[in-house]
Amino acid sequence: MKYIARLLAIIAAFALLFAAYGGRVNPTIWVLPSMATLALPVVAIAAIAFMVVLLIFKQWRAAVVIFGALLLSWPTLRLICPFNLSHTKANPDAAQLKVLTMNVTQFNWLNNEEPSKNMRYILDQNADIVVIQEGLVYFRYEQLKPVEPMLDELYKKYPYRKEAFFDVGILSKYPFTEVRTPILAKDSINYFIKAWDVDVPGDDIRVISMHLSSLRFNSNDNQIFDSINVPSGRKRRIKSVVKKLGEGFRRHVPQVEAMRQLLDETVGDVLVMGDLNDTPGSFAYRTLCGEDLRDAWADTGFGPMYTFHANHMYVKIDHIFYRGNIKPLICRRDKEGESDHYPMVAVFERE
Question: Model pTM?
Answer without folding.
Answer: 0.93
